[in-house]
Amino acid sequence: MFIILFLYFARMIVHYIMQYFLLKFMNVPVTKFRPLWYRIDLVYAPWLFSQDAAVVALGIVSNTILFILIDFLTFLVKRYCKCMPKIWYKVIAYYGAYAFLDPFIVLFLDTVSGNW
To answer: Which domain holds residue 95?
Structure first.
């Protein structure tokens, strides 16, 4: 159970931290970055629609890229060391599920909390 909760928060942190760094890179003003227990409030003022679209897409893509990197690291360790803890396979499976469900989780939580 601890793994599931830890990976849920890891997914959330990766999603919003990467969005925050992209906003800073594009010089978009960020007015609020407040972590809550179920999501992170990230309020910013984009000047163009393309900036907003890039921020939304990067949150999803960053979790997918991290999942691919974890999977590739596991492949390399398994190939060269011939061993891997059994718990690690659960980590990969749960994070992969969260990477796939990330846009739906964010949509659901934003809808329920009224974050438009």
So the answer is: 2-113
